[in-house]
Amino acid sequence: MVSSEAKTGLKAPDAEWAEKWEAVIGLEVHVQLLTRSKIFSGASTAYGAAPNTQASAIDLGLPGVLPVLNGEALRMAVMFGLAIDAHIAPRCVFARKHYFYPDLPKGYQISQYELPIVSQGHLDIEVEGQARRIGITRAHLEEDAGKSLHEGFGDQTGIDLNRAGTPLLEIVSEPDLRSPAEAVAYLKKLHQLVVYLGICDGNMQEGSFRCDANVSVRRKGEHKFGTRTETKNVNSFRFVEKAIAYEIERQIEVLESGGAVVQETRLFDPDRGETRAMRSKEEAMDYRYFPDPDLLPVVCTQEYIEGIRRQLPELPEAKKARFMDHYGLPAYDAGVLTAERALADYYEAVVESSGADPKLCANWVITDLLGGLNKLGCELAASPVSAGALAGLLKRIVDKTVSGKLAKEVFEAMLAGEGSADQIIAARGLVQITDEAAIVAAIEAVMAKNPSQLAEYRAGKDKLFGFFVGQVMKATQGKANPEAVNKLLKEKLAPP
Amino acid sequence: MSAGTRGPGAGSGEALHRLSIRQLAEGLRARRFSSRELAQHFLQRIEAHDKTLNSFVTVTAERALAQAAAADARLAQGAGGPLTGIPIAQKDIFCTQGVKTSCGSRMLDSFVAPYDATIVRKLHAEAGAVMLGKCNMDEFAMGSSNETSWYGPVRNPWDLERVPGGSSGGSVAAVAAGLAPAATATDTGGSIRQPAALTGLTGIKPTYGRVSRYGMVAFASSLDQAGVVAHSAEDAAYVLQAMAGFDPLDSTSVDRPVDDYCAALDRPIEGLRIGLPKEYFAAGLDPACRAAIETAIGQFERLGARICEIRLPHAPLSVPTYYVVAPAEASSNLARYDGVRYGHRADGAKTLEELYKKSRGEGFGAEVQRRIMIGTYVLSHGYYDAYYLKAQKVRRLIYDDFKHAFETVDLVVGPTAQNVAFKLGDKLDDPVAMYLNDIYTIAANLAGIPALSIPCGFVNGLPVGLQLMGNFFDEARLLNAAHQYQLATDWHLRRPHGFE
Amino acid sequence: MSLSPEQVQKIAHLARLELKPEQEGAYARQLSDILEMVGALARADTERIAPMAHPLDMVQRLRADVVTDPVGAEGRAAFQAIAPAVQDGLYLVPKVIE
Q1: Do A293 and C54 touch (CB under 8 A)?
Q2: Dihedral of alpha carbons B243, B245, B248, B251, sign
Q3: ipTM tops 0.90
Q4: Between A and B, how many CB-CB pairs are < 8 A?
Q5: Which residue segments constitute the domains of chain C, with CATH numbers given?
Q6: From C34, C58, C82, residue closest to B114, measured CB to CB
C-alpha cells in the first residue's frame, strides 16, 4: 500500500539544494496530557497558577516522597498508540533519567527507556497531493520538568515547579521526513490527532505541544546518515518549518565548504530566523538510565487495551469519510468540517437539531459561521452562536419563515448577540411573506407601476424578469418568498 | 565484665523502663501511672544518659508531653489501643512534621519536615504512641557502626568504647539503655538486625512492602524497609502491628491484610522446621559467637523445632551484589540534594555548577560520597551491564536460593553478625572491612524476606545476636519463634551496667 | 578494577560532588577496593537469568485522576519556609545562561 518510493520521497522538495542533497528529519514531540492531576502526584495540572502553588511534596522531590501512577495518563497513552496503529507493550517500565538542572527537582526525570508503552506505529500524511507514511518509533510516558525564569531576578534564575510532574507523552518519529514541508504536515496531522483524541489541548503557546527537530543532511544517493543536530524551542508550525529549512541550508553550507557538522543542540531564534548552538558546553550526556525502583512494571492486559479501543473516538479520516457518505458532502466540505473535532461535533448538532439539508448546513457552518467567527477573531469554543441557535435559524429557512437571503441578516445579528433567530426575526419583522394573495397583490402593483418594462418583457425581453423580481422584493422589503415570487411572477407576467 | 543485671521489677515507678510494653499498657489502664509520667520518666533518663551515648539528635520533650496528655485523655475515656500513651523513639530517617529530620547528615541539618511519614502518622496520630525524639543514625542510613553521623558517633551502652552497630545505632542505644521502650529503625542491608545484635535487642525487618516507605528518606528503594527495635519479640510485635499495612502513597506497598502478630506469639513451635545454611557457619564467624549461636539452636531443638542443614549457595555473593545495587539506587535517590529547595546550601556559589558541587561536597560525609560515586560509576554508560544488570541477575539467584530453602524449612537461622561489637574507629579506614559486617544480613534484603535478630548470649560481656529469616509475609511465625525462645531464656532481659 | 584519580574526578563531576584534592587519592584507592570486591559478581553464571528489580511479583497500581493535593498559597508557604533562597514564590539559583 505504501510504495518504497513514497517512503523515500518520490517528489523531491523544491528547494535549491534538493538536486544534490537529501535532508533527513526526525521529530520528537512532547505532548502534555490533559489529565486533571499530575502523573505521579495528586497536584493540579491547571495552567496559569501562581508560581509553586501547584507543586506538591512529591513534585518538589522532598526527602521520603514516592510516585504513584495516574491511570488516566496511561489510558491516554494507550489511546494514542491505538490511534497510530502501534504496538501496546503488555509490560512497560518506568526508568530514571539522570541529569542535574534546577527545574528537575529529583535530579532525575521519571521516563521510559527500554520498554516504552507504545512502539512501532505510523502516521499517514499528504504533502502536495502525495501520500507518505511516517513511522513513529515509540511514544512513552514521562513527567515534565518545571520552568526557569531568567529575567527579573538579577543575577539569579527563578524556578517555578508548577509544571513539574505534568504528564507528557514523548512521541518520536522515525527519521522518515525529507523536507520542512513534510515535517510541518506530520506535525499538523499529529496535532490534529492528539486534540481529536482529547488527550491534549494542542495549545502551542502554552507549551502543551512542543517540538524538537533532529536534522541531518547527506548527499543524494548516500545511504549513511549524516551527523545530526537537535533544534529546540520551536513552538509554532511556522517556526518549525523555518528552523528546519535554515538548519538544512546551514549544514549543507558547512559540508560544502569542507567542514563537519557538529553534533549539538541548537536553539531557534524566531526574530532572526536562525538556529544557533547553545552556549553551554555540550558533553555527551550520560543519563544513567535504570528502572525506577519506586515503581513497578505496568501491565496492560488485552482486556484493558480492548476496552480502550472500544472507547476511541472516531478519528479524522473515518469521520471525513462518514461525512461524505452519510451527509453526501463533497470532499472539500467534509475535510473542512472534520479538521477539528469540535467543529465536526458542532456541524452534526446543527444537522440533527435543524433537520435541514446537510449541504445547506455545511454551507452555513463553513461560510457563515466560520467566516463570522473569523471576523470577530473568535474561537469556536467561544462562539456567540451555539449549534442549537444556528439550527434554530436553519429551521426557519426550511419552514420558509424567512428567506435564505434575510437569514444572513438574522445571522449577523445573532453573532452580535442580539438574541435567538426567532427573537430577531420578530423584532425586525422579517417574517417571510408566503401568502400568495399578498404576493400577487404586490406583483400587480409593480406591474401597474412599470407598464413599459411590462410591455418590453411581454415583447420578448426576458432579461427584464430580474428587474421585476427586484421590484417585487423591494416592494415587500425583501420579505416575499423568492420561490413564490418567481412562480407567481412568471404566471402574471405571461401575456394574458 | 559481667553481663549486666537481670530481671525487671513489677510496676514500680522507678523501674518503668524495665517494664515490657504489655506491662506498660496494663499499668496505664490500671492507672498505676499516667502516660505523662511515663514520658517524663524516659525524658529524664535521656537527659541523664544521652550525653554519654549520643543516641538522640533531637529530643521532642514538649511534643511528647502534649501527646502524652492527649493519650491520658483518651485512656481516661476507656478508649485507645495497645500503644496509646506508650513512648517510643523515631529513627531520624522518618519525616516528622514540624520536627527536624536530619538522617544524620549535615545535608539535612536544617530540614524541618513539612509532612509526616506514614508510619509516624500510624504510630502517633492513630495508635496514640508518644514520640520522645529522633534517633541518631549513620548518615543517610549508610553504615554499620553509627560512626558516619554528622552528629557524632553513638556509643554502645554495653561498652562505651564500642560501636552500637548501624545504621540504626541511635535507635538501639536508646532502647538498650532504657531511654525508650522501643524505637523505629530501618534496614537496607542489616541496619536493624546488626545493631540489635550488638546491643542485645530484638530487631525485626519485615517483608519488603509490608510497611510503607512513604516519608522514609530513601537510601536504596528496592531494599529499604522500616521496622522496630525493642527488648523482646512481644514488644516488637506490638509496635510492628501498628506500623504494618497497605499505603496507597507507596507503589511498592503490598495490599494484603496484616496478620495478628500478638495473637500468634503464643503458638507452640513443636515441629517447626529450621534450616541452618552451611555458608553462614563458615570461616569468618567468631568461634565464641558460634558457640553461643549453636547453644541457642540447641534451645530451639528443646522447644520442639527440627533442625537441618540447608544450602544457600549464592550467599557469598550477597555483599558484592548489595554493594552494586544499593549504591546505585542511593546515588539516584540522593541526586535531589542540591541546596535549591531545602537542606544545606553552600555559601558564595557563583554558578549553578558550583552551587551543586559545593553544597553536596559539604553536605555529604565521606561514606555517602563513596557510595554515590560507586553508584554513579556502576550505572554509567559502558558499565551498566557488567555491574548493575549483572547484580540484579545475581540477586535473583539469591532469591531463588531462599525460595528453594523454604520448600523444606519454615525458618532459616544463623548468626546476625560475625562478631560482637568492635571498638570505635576500628574499621573507619577500610570500607570493605566495614561492609563485611553485613555479610549475614544482606541476603534477606536482596530477597525481600522478613528477618529478625534476637539476643542469644554474651561473649566477653558483649551481646551476641541470633538471626531468624522467614518466608514472605511470615512475620508472625518469626515473632512467634523468637517469643517462645525468649520464654525459655532470659538474654533479652539483661541490661547494661549503669543503665539498669 | 582500579580507578585513577582522574577517573574519580570524572565520576565526582557526574555526581556533582566537589572533592577536596587531598581526598582524591584516598577515594581512588577505596573505590578501587570496593570495585575489586564487587568484581566477584563476574564469576556468577547468570546466562539465562532474568534480572530482579523487585522482590515482589507485583504490578504497578494505578491512581484515579483526581486532584487530592491542591497545595495553593498556604501549601507553598509551608514548603518555602524551609527553602534556602526564594523570591516572589520562586526558588532562586545562580543564573544559567543557555
Answers
A1: yes
A2: positive
A3: yes
A4: 94
A5: 5-43 (1.10.20)
A6: C82
Q: How far apart are CA B424 and CA A42, in angstroms?
A: 46
Active-site residue numbers of B? 91, 167, 191
Of A67, A288, A294, the CB nearest to B379: A288
Integer Cα distance of B412 and A360 in angstroms: 83
Q: What's the gap in Å between the CA of B353 and the closest CA on chain C?
A: 7
Q: Does C64 touch chain B (CB under 8 A)?
A: no
Q: Tally the C-alpha atoms within 13 A of residue A406's C-alpha that lie toward its C-beta.
A: 27
Contact by Cβ (8 Å): A161, A146: yes
Range with the lowest mean pLDDT among A72-86, B277-291, B423-437? B423-437
How is domain B15-272 classified at the CATH fold level? Amidase signature (AS) enzymes (3.90.1300)
- Closest Cα partner for B85 from B99, B110, B65, B60? B65
Task: Check residue B266 and give left, alpha or beta (phi > 0: left; psi -120 to 50: alpha).
Answer: alpha
Query: Which residue reads 524449612 in cell numbers?
Result: B409
| Dihedral Cα C44, C45, C51, C52, nearest 10 deg | -60
Instruction: Give the CA distances from residue A441 to residues A400, A430, A447, A477, B9, in Å, rounded to whole numbers and listed in that order.
Output: 20, 19, 10, 14, 122
**pLDDT tier for residue A129 given thresholds of 50, 70 and 90:** confident
Beta bridge mates, A276: A267
Using the Cβ of B110 and the Cβ atoms of chain A, whether some distance falls under 8 Å is answered with no
pLDDT, tens digit, 9 for 90 and up, residues A388-439: 999 999 999 988 888 888 899 999 999 999 999 999 988 888 888 888 888 8
Residue B7: pLDDT band with limits 50, 70, 90: very low
Q: Which residues, 6+ apart, have CB-to-CB distance to B424 below 8 Å?
A: B145, B147, B153, B155, B161, B162, B163
Task: Determine the distance in angstroms separating the CA of B499 from the nearest CA of chain C, rounded to an integer.
Answer: 38
Please state the pTM of the whole predicted model.
0.91
Structural domain boundaries in chain B? 15-272, 316-394
What's the mean pLDDT in B121-144? Answer: 97
* C81–B317 C-beta distance less than 8 A: no
Residue C88: closest C-alpha in chain A: A51
Cβ atoms of residues A36 and A44 within 8 Å: yes
Inspect the interface and report whether the beta carbons of C69 and A160 lie closer than 8 Å: no
Best probe of the C interface among A33, A36, A37, A52, by most C CBs < 10 A, is A52
Cα–Cα separations (whole angstroms), residue B222 to B318, B444, C54: 15, 12, 6
